[in-house]
Specification:
By secondary structure, this protein is α/β, with parallel strands linked by helices. It has one domain: Purple Acid Phosphatase, chain A, domain 2 (4-Layer Sandwich), CATH 3.60.21. Helices cover 23% and strands 27% of the residues. It is built from seven helices and 16 strands. The strands form two sheets. Strands 1, 2, 3, 4, 5, 12, 13, 14 and 15 form a nine-stranded mixed sheet that branches. A seven-stranded mixed sheet has the order 6-7-8-9-11-10-16. Helix 5 runs parallel beside helix 6.
Length: 385
């Protein structure tokens, strides 16, 4: 396994009682004929949030202008939609969110391909709001896929509580990819059967989930699990969550994409019993308004970490039928406040395209140094029995 550098920055068939895992969104793409598996470059982002300062922007496309080239040049980009999407209700911020589809569409147009809608805010507007979110996402995916000849997908919630949950299937570059999104909990609990919630603190339930999932993993060349959970604003994952993630890797999950803490947590490339996987505990806030209360004169203050994020890119290849993790590269990003008081995403290594006020430019230069040091110390490579 190589560590790749970008500039100075281095990121390093059992049914569970009471549970159903979802087939979501648009129908699965028909299976193409067998093909040679070409190289995959998968980009994973943090939480896509929407506070007032975000959804009041007149042009959402500006959020992604400086990272669009990155998102468009990979194979697939993943992002977590951390709010309900209901165009029939007014937009609303924390603690009870609601956002309109145009906000998500801007991210999709910038290159986001795969979305998660399983998190603690999905049901902020109750079960009706969750159902409206699924329907809005279905409509958005159908619209974009037809207009742009793409295959934008999502996982995490469903309209019909009586249908079985199941991973969605994505075909890309000759790969058959399984993808599933689950959450540890929900702030507002929807009616059973609409969203899967697996609490790693409940060992019986989490073990049942792994036993349910394991035989399905073998149907895919690559399996990716989106997991929303943990403790917010904590710099390291809980021991129980790490143990749960390790069990998932041992069961055959190739990539665990974690989110919820709203700050960056360590990335782990681990081999367990001969099975290699990548664990992203948290990639921070992809886009949010939380940085509005950051003091630019205090770049080392703990709250400053809510403005940091990273696009983690995982490069994979196939050798003799085996999935190989070739490279793990991180591109640290930040939520930048422009002179127009708009929040946009920019790579920390290049802020030259944004009109950033003087105190903030100094702040982000200091964050550049701090994040460089952070990722040097917190990319973990390990081999476990």
């Amino acid at each position: 396994m190589k560590k790749y550098f970008r500039g100075l920055l281095v990121l390093t068939i059992l049914l569970i009682p009471g549970l159903r895992l979802t087939a979501l969104n648009v129908e699965d793409t028909p299976e193409p004929p067998p093909a040679i598996r070409e190289k995959l470059v998968l980009s994973f982002t943090g939480d896509m949030m929407a506070h007032v300062i975000n959804y009041k922007m007149p042009d959402y496309s500006l959020i992604y202008r400086d990272i669009e080239k990155i998102l468009m040049s990979d194979s697939l980009t993943f992002s977590n939609v951390e709010f309900p999407v209901n165009p029939k209700l007014p937009q609303a911020s924390y603690p009870v969110f609601n956002i309109h589809p145009e906000y998500v569409e801007a991210a999709v147009n910038a290159g986001v391909d795969v979305l998660s809608i399983a998190n603690n805010h999905t049901a902020d507007q109750g079960t009706k709001g969750l159902i409206a979110t699924v329907e809005a996402m279905q409509q958005l995916c159908t619209k974009v896929n037809k207009q742009q000849d793409r295959d934008v997908r999502f996982s995490g919630a469903k309209v019909n509580p009586d249908t079985d949950f199941s991973p969605i299937t994505i075909y890309k570059n000759g790969w058959k990819i399984g993808y599933l999104a689950v959450s540890q909990f929900s702030n507002v609990t929807p009616r059973p059967g609409h969203m899967m919630m697996i609490d790693f603190n409940n060992s019986k339930r989490s073990d049942e989930f792994i036993r349910w999932l394991e035989p399905q993993i073998g149907n895919y060349d690559l399996f990716i699990l989106s997991y929303h959970g943990g403790i917010e604003y904590q710099p390291k994952p809980l021991k129980r969550k790490t143990e749960f993630f390790h069990k998932l890797i041992a069961s055959g999950v190739n990539i665990i994409w974690g989110h919820h803490p709203h700050i960056v947590q360590p990335v782990e490339v681990v081999t367990i019993g001969g099975k290699e996987g990548v664990i992203m505990n948290s990639l921070g806030n992809f886009i949010s308004g939380q940085g509005r209360i950051i003091d630019p004169d205090l770049p080392e203050e703990e709250w400053s970490y809510t403005g940091d994020s990273a696009i983690l890119q995982v490069e994979l290849s196939s050798r003799e039928g085996n999935t190989i993790i070739d490279n793990v590269t991180a591109i640290p990003t930040a939520n930048i406040f422009t002179t127009n008081r708009e929040v946009v995403i920019a790579p920390l290594e290049d802020l030259t395209h944004q009109p950033v006020p003087e105190p903030w430019m100094n702040f982000f230069l200091e964050r550049f140094i701090l994040m460089h040091d952070y990722f040097n110390r917190n990319i973990q490579y390990s081999v476990l029995p």
